[in-house]
Specification:
alpha+beta, seven-stranded mixed beta sheet, five-stranded antiparallel beta sheet, 6 helices, 27% helix, 33% strand
């Protein structure tokens, strides 16, 4: 009896060794190819450009706030009045902005690896209104001196600009200058539009065309707008649209919320499962989480946060302790990463 049990243990151990050897070779190959792909991506980004993000435009009005303050004069043994000047910027967001993009893609290859790159033609147009400038000028408890305004447009990699863009402003064509100017630490460009009248509210139509190269993706972030995401609990597989219920609940605590909504997009449970087959019945935590699933998601490993790629860890609701415990999956995944780093 003891010999049979020992033979079973030895057989299981041998199977682990036989299976572990090819798995370690596969993990090594994955790690090596991931490293090579990262090198290829970096090389192509240096010779072409990297991923692009376009933020703005912003109408920026620099101004000075001038006040008087008392300074003690040691020689006169009395206070004297000196001007105190604070430099600030007024940021005006566009009332309306439209972006149209025409993108041509191609692949840049290095050996086995291909990285998508693109050349895009971007048409931006919209309108600024200077009501905020008038409100600032009406503040009577301070002296304000306005300086020439400029438009700031943030672009993550300026090397991608194919030709010098120009800013169309009230029938005038203004050349962009390098640097966002409003944000010293961020890449971009700006165009000086001149003095604005703070006594009257004006509307300014604008447009520009930008030919921009990039790699893999391009992102647009019109400032002054925000995206909100919410969900609610419904029966498994439900096709009911609960948008009005969610909006009504938010409206209770934030009156006027509905008036701020520009667009909405909803997905019911059936649509969620169609979008991702892991969302069984529309369940965003990947189906039932029973006692077995609690410790064996996504697979029954001693460290369920690891993947065959040593540089990638999982920290979603598909790992212990599952969904609904906000942040604990990420916490334990981070602990696993730190533990591995200590052994390096």
């Amino acid at each position: 009896m003891h010999i049979r049990f020992l033979l079973k243990i030895l057989t299981i151990g041998l199977l682990f060794l036989l299976l572990g050897w090819p798995l370690s070779m596969i993990n090594g190959l994955i790690s090596e190819r991931t490293h090579f792909r990262t090198e290829v991506r970096t090389d192509i980004a240096q010779s072409w450009t990297g991923e692009q993000a376009l933020i703005g435009p912003l109408l920026v009005v620099p101004y000075q706030v001038i006040s008087q303050h008392q300074v003690w004069d040691e020689h006169l043994k009395s206070y004297r009045t000196e001007p105190l000047i604070l430099r600030k910027n007024l940021f005006i967001l566009p009332d309306r902005i439209e972006i149209q993009a025409r993108v041509q893609t191609e692949e840049r290859r290095r050996g086995l690896y291909a990285v998508p790159v693109y050349t895009s033609e971007l048409d931006l147009n919209g309108r600024f209104t200077t009501a905020a400038l008038g409100e600032l000028a009406k503040e009577g408890n301070k002296e304000i001196k306005f300086e020439p305004a400029f438009v700031s447009l943030l672009i993550s990699d300026l090397r991608g600009i194919v030709e010098q863009p120009r800013w169309q402003w009230q029938g005038k064509e203004i050349e962009f200058l390098s640097g966002s100017r409003a944000f010293a630490q961020l890449a971009g460009m700006h165009a000086v539009v001149g003095d604005l009248d703070p006594q009257t509210t004006q509307s300014f139509d604008f447009s520009t065309k930008i030919n921009l190269r990039g790699m893999e993706q391009i992102r647009f972030s019109p400032v002054g707008k925000h995206v909100a995401w919410a969900y609610c609990h419904v029966p498994n597989g439900s096709t009911e649209d609960r948008l009005d219920v969610i909006n009504a609940q938010i409206e209770r605590f934030a009156p006027g919320f509905r008036d701020c909504i520009l667009a909405t997009h909803t997905m019911n449970c059936a649509e969620m499962e169609s979008y991702n087959a892991n969302y069984i019945g529309g369940d965003v935590v990947g189906g039932v989480t029973d006692l077995t699933q609690l410790f064996t998601r996504p697979v029954g490993l001693f460290n369920p946060y690891e993947t065959p790629n040593p540089n990638i860890y999982i920290c979603s609701a598909s790992t212990p302790p599952g969904g609904g415990v906000h942040g604990m999956c990420g916490y334990w995944a981070a602990e696993a990463v730190l533990k591995k780093m200590k052994n390096w």
